[in-house]
Amino acid sequence: MTIKKRLASLSVAAMMAGALALSGCTGVTEPSAGASSGQPEGKVTLRYLIEQPEDAAALKAIEDEIGKFSADKGIDVKVESMPFDTMKTVLQTQLRSGDGPDVFKWGSGQGFGGSLAEADLLMDLTQAYAEYKWPIYDFAKEQVTFGGKIMGVPGTMETVGLFYNKDIFSQLGIAEPKNLSDLKAAADKIKAAGKTPFALGDKEGWEGGHLLSIALSSEVGSEGIRKLVAGEASWDSPEVVKALRVWTDFNDAGYLPKSPTSLTYDAQNALFLTQKAAMVPTGSWFVDGIQNKAKFQAGYIPFPSEASAGIFSAGLGSGPYVSKATKHQKEALEFVNFLTSQEVGRWTVQTLTEIPPYPVDTNGLEVSPMFQQVLSDTAKMGSGGGDMGLNIDVLMSDTFNEAMTDGIQGLLTGQKTPEQVAAALQAAAKK
User: Fold this and answer.
1) pLDDT for 395 beyond 90
2) What is the value of pTM for the model shown?
3) CATH superfamily ID and name for 3-156+317-365
């Protein structure tokens, strides 16, 4: 599950919370075929809980890949899946009860793995990292380190930037933007040609966090945004106001669809894929959709700042954690070691079009030129070879994210100014 889904449907989850916790209903799928009921006595079985994939074929592929581990190690793995909103509600309750999974896939960052670490529900993996020598990128490892202990393995890497239609740009004589002025000039030409410059929808609300992340990361750089996230800089600073103002200016200039807060994420992407809009701000997970559905050549670049071509914002999807209550610590660690292997890394790239948080040899893999570019850019940034911003929503608290969601929607409806939104973000950060 990608970070784009993290903040969706939380109100539904809240309504479900009480009934689910009391009834013990988890909403999980039936265990996969690998979960044998007639296993030999003494054979270890691990329960592995993941967020429900959007595509049923992806779940089958995951089960098949994990079946290789079971066959090799003689450790049965029951794969269970649960909708994200349900999992967010009941996971901590399950882990506290002792009836939770042995290993589970969950989000990195303070708001996800961090909350479980604070509740003392996770196995400390610091020693396992040293023993197994997991080659996780340092920046990614930081996002599963809480209280000086490494408590999980970060999930697949994702960048957020700007996709553009190369065919439309070529037809209109537009070069790839190298700064914000170039981007505005491109938008003016596209608008004059009768197309929408930016496909942008914010009906679900979580999309707004990406809008702020990409503009702010390019404005202040990685160090500046890290200071904001760490509470060492103020969210009502002129730089934050400036990043927010980009989107009010774009809206006022007619670069965005009419009423973007009434447009869903899927509808936003449809505008781009049907070539009614020339650009779309979203994440690297969209590469797969472009490869399968677009009938044009697309490019993927960072969102530019006034002074430069900008930098990508980066975040992490869900990765494996081990329950502190598991009765099979050794087997669970063996399974996590499998999940961080080159074999699984290559399979993840090839089959799921996702980017592991560690170096993967992609020689011989069949990937599209666009995804190869994303792989190369991400590997370079992950190994310290390039500046990289942060995707804000997975690193901040629910209180902050609510203020950010409401604030961006207020900007896009003209009900709030950038200064008002920045002040609300700072107040929420203090809480």
Assistant:
1) no
2) 0.78
3) Periplasmic binding protein-like II (3.40.190.10)
